[in-house]
C-alpha cells in the first residue's frame, strides 16, 4: 500500500514533470490532467460531510489524431495509484442493440481495481508463501515424503491384556489333572505373540531408518532447490485452471459478451475444465504456478473486493477515447440514432448512478471521466447538451510541427530512436543517426501531414520504418558494423516518395 500512498502525494508540477518524460508539448492538457488527478486525492482528505458534495470536474480533450491524447492517458494510468480504465466510445451500443452496453465500462473498471488490490495483497503475503511453495515443490520432487508418519508410534498398538500361560497360573483346589493339550496351545500362543512383537519392532526400526534417509534426502534436495540447481528438472503436477462461477451479471443488464462468457463458463464446468490437468513442467515453472495457487488461497477475496469497491468509487478514472465518433453532425438518421442512444446511456453514468457488478453495486458519482476526440468532422457542440455539460473542462491540444517531431524522435524516454537502435543492437548493428537526419525526417513528417492526412506523431513510425527498411532486412549481414544515418541517407530513401504526393499518400 505504501507505493500507492507515495503516488497520491505527487503535486501537479511533479505529475507534469513525469509526463514530460514521455510526451512532448501539450502543456495545457498535461496541466489540466495533473490538477484533476491531484483533486482526486485532495477530496479524499476532506471531512466526510464535505467530501460527498465535491463532484469531479470531468475533462474533454480536443485535438487531431496523433497529438498525444491517448499517450497522456496511458502515462496517467501508470502514474496514479487509482483504478484506471481506457475505453473507446465506438465499442459501445445503445441498450437493446447487439454489442457492449456502456455500463460494462464500470464493470471493467471494477475488475481493474480488484486485480490491483489483489496484486498488492499478494505482494504482502509473498514472503509467507515461500516456505509453503518450497514444501510443495519438494513433495513434487520426492513423492511420498514429508507427509508425516500416519502409523502408530512404537509402544502404541494393541493394548489388549496379555493372558498368562495356563500352566503357570495357580491351579484351583478342584484341578487335579493337567490338560497337556491346553498347555501346548498356550505355549504356542505365547511364542506367536513374541514373534509378532519382534517382527513389529523390526518393521518399526526399518521404517525409522527409512524415514531418516528420506528426511536426509529431503533436506539435501531443499538445499539444492534453494541454490537453484534444480530449476530445469521436470516434475509432473496437476495444473488447475479455475474458471470461476458463471458470471451472473447477465441478470443485471450485462451485454452479449457477458452472456457469451457466462455460457462458456457453464460449458467448461460441465466438461470438467477447471478440475486440473496433469502436466510435465520444470521446477521454475512449477514454482510460479504453485506461488499463484498458494497466494490465491491466502488472500481474503472479500476484503479485496471491499477495498477495490472503495477505490473505484472514490478515486476511479475512466478515459473515453474517440468520443467524437458518437457525436451526431447535422440531422440524425440511421446509425446516428444509435450514436445518440449511446450518448444518452453514457449520461447517467457520468452524472452518477448505481451499476451492478459481480463485486456489488458501484456508485459512479465520484468517478473522474476524461473524454477525448479529434472532432475533425463533428464538433463538441454536436454532442447532446446534457453530455456536454458533464465535461466542463475543455482542453485543446495543438497540432505537431517539425520542431515537435524532432523532439519526439529523440527526447522521450521511449523515443523512436532509442527503440530502433536498441532493436538493431541485438543483431550487433549500431546506428549513428546524425542531427541533420533528425531534421530531415521531421521536415518530411510535417510536409506529408500537411499535404495528406494529418496523423500526427504516428507519421514518424512510418518514416522510420521506410528509412531503416533495408537495414532491418539485412541486419545479420552488418553485424559488428556502425551504420551512419544522415540527411543524405534519409533523402535517398524518402525523396522520391515524399515529392510524389499521390505516392506519399499511400506509402507515407
Any chance you could write out the topology, listing elements then pairs?
Blueprint: H1 2-8, H2 12-20, H3 27-44, H4 48-51, E1 59-62, H5 69-79, E2 84-88, H6 104-141, H7 180-226, E3 234-239, H8 256-270, E4 277-282, H9 283-298, H10 301-315, E5 317-321, H11 335-351, E6 354-357, E7 360-363, E8 368-373, H12 385-389, E9 393-396, H13 402-410, H14 416-425, E10 430-433, H15 435-451, H16 458-467, H17 469-473, E11 482-485, H18 487-499, H19 501-507
Parallel strand pairs: 1-8, 1-9, 2-5, 5-8, 10-11
Antiparallel strand pairs: 3-4, 6-7
Helix pairs in contact: 2-3, 6-9, 6-10, 13-15, 15-16, 15-18
Describe this structure in words.
- It is a single chain.
- By secondary structure, this protein is α/β, with parallel strands linked by helices.
- Among the domains are: 2-123 and 307-396, P-loop containing nucleotide triphosphate hydrolases (Rossmann fold, 3-Layer(aba) Sandwich), CATH 3.40.50.300; 402-507, Helicase, Ruva Protein, domain 3.
- It contains 19 helices and eleven strands.
- The chain starts with a helix and ends with a helix.
Structural class: alpha/beta
Q: Rg, please?
A: 36 Å
Side by side, the strands of the main sheet go 2-5-8-1-9
For the termini, the CA-CA separation is: 47 Å
CATH superfamily of the domain at 2-123 and 307-396: P-loop containing nucleotide triphosphate hydrolases
CATH domain class name of the domain at 2-123 and 307-396: Alpha Beta
What is the fold-level CATH name, i.e. the topology of the domain at 2-123 and 307-396? Rossmann fold
| Total DSSP helices | 19
The CATH architecture of the domain at 2-123 and 307-396 would be: 3-Layer(aba) Sandwich
Which sequence of SSEs, written as H and E, runs from N to C?
A: HHHHEHEHHEHEHHEHEEEHEHHEHHHEHH
Subunit structure: A double ring-shaped homohexamer of HslV is capped on each side by a ring-shaped HslU homohexamer. The assembly of the HslU/HslV complex is dependent on binding of ATP.
GO molecular function: ATP binding; ATP hydrolysis activity; peptidase activity; proteasome-activating activity
InterPro entries: AAA+_ATPase (IPR003593), ATP-dep_Clp_protease_ClpX (IPR050052), ATPase_AAA_core (IPR003959), Clp_ATPase_C (IPR019489), HslU (IPR004491), P-loop_NTPase (IPR027417)
Protein name: ATP-dependent protease ATPase subunit HslU
Amino acid at each position: 500500500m505504501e507505493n500507492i500512498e507515495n503516488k497520491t502525494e505527487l503535486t501537479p508540477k511533479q505529475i507534469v514533470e513525469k509526463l514530460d518524460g514521455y510526451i512532448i508539448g501539450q502543456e495545457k492538457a498535461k496541466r489540466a490532467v495533473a490538477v484533476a488527478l491531484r483533486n482526486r486525492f485532495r477530496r479524499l482528505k476532506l471531512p466526510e460531510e464535505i467530501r460527498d458534495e465535491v463532484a469531479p470536474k470531468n475533462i474533454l480533450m480536443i485535438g487531431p489524431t496523433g497529438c498525444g491524447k491517448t499517450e497522456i492517458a496511458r502515462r496517467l494510468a501508470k502514474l496514479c495509484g487509482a483504478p484506471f480504465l481506457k475505453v473507446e466510445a465506438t465499442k459501445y451500443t445503445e441498450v437493446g442493440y447487439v454489442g457492449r452496453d456502456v455500463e460494462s465500462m464500470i464493470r471493467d473498471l471494477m475488475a481493474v481495481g480488484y486485480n490491483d488490490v489483489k496484486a498488492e495483497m499478494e505482494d504482502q503475503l509473498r514472503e509467507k508463501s515461500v516456505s509453503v511453495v518450497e514444501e510443495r515443490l519438494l513433495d513434487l520432487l520426492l513423492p511420498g515424503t514429508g507427509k508425516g508418519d500416519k502409523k502408530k508410534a512404537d509402544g502404541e498398538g494393541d493394548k489388549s491384556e496379555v493372558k498368562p500361560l495356563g500352566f503357570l497360573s495357580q491351579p484351583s483346589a478342584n484341578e487335579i489333572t493337567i490338560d497337556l493339550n491346553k498347555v501346548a496351545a498356550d505355549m504356542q500362543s505365547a511364542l506367536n505373540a513374541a514373534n509378532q512383537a519382534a517382527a513389529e519392532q523390526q518393521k518399526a526400526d526399518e521404517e525409522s531408518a527409512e524415514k531418516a534417509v528420506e528426511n536426509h534426502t529431503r533436506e539435501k534436495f531443499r538445499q539444492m532447490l534453494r541454490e537453484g540447481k534444480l530449476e530445469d528438472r521436470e516434475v509432473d503436477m496437476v495444473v488447475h485452471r479455475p474458471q470461476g462461477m458463471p458470471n451472473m451479471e447477465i441478470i443485471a443488464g450485462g451485454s452479449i459478451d457477458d452472456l457469451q462468457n457466462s455460457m462458456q463458463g457453464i460449458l467448461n464446468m460441465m466438461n470438467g475444465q477447471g478440475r486440473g490437468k496433469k502436466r510435465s513442467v520444470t521446477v521454475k515453472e512449477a514454482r510460479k504456478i504453485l506461488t499463484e495457487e498458494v497466494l490465491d488461497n491466502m488472500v481474503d477475496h472479500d476484503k479485496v473486493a471491499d477495498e477495490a469497491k472503495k477505490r473505484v468509487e472514490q478515486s476511479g478514472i475512466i478515459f473515453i477515447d474517440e468520443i467524437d465518433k458518437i457525436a451526431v453532425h447535422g440531422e440524425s438518421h440511421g446509425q446516428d440514432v444509435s450514436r445518440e442512444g449511446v450518448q444518452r446511456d453514457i449520461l447517467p453514468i457520468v452524472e452518477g448512478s448505481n451499476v451492478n457488478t459481480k463485486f456489488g453495486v458501484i456508485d459512479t458519482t465520484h468517478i473522474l471521466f476524461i473524454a477525448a476526440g479529434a472532432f475533425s468532422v463533428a464538433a463538441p457542440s454536436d454532442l447532446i447538451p446534457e453530455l456536454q455539460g458533464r465535461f466542463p473542462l475543455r482542453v485543446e491540444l495543438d497540432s505537431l510541427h517539425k520542431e515537435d517531431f524532432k523532439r519526439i524522435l529523440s527526447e522521450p524516454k521511449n523515443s523512436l530512436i532509442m527503440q530502433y537502435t536498441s532493436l538493431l543492437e541485438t543483431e550487433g548493428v549500431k546506428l549513428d543517426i546524425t542531427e541533420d537526419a533528425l531534421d530531415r525526417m521531421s521536415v518530411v513528417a510535417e510536409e506529408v501531414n500537411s499535404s495528406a492526412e494529418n496523423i500526427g506523431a504516428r507519421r514518424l513510425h512510418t518514416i522510420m520504418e521506410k528509412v531503416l527498411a533495408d537495414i532491418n532486412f539485412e541486419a545479420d549481414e552488418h553485424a559488428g558494423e556502425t551504420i551512419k544515418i544522415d540527411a543524405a541517407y534519409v533523402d535517398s530513401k524518402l525523396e522520391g516518395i515524399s515529392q510524389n504526393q499521390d505516392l506519399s499518400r499511400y506509402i507515407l
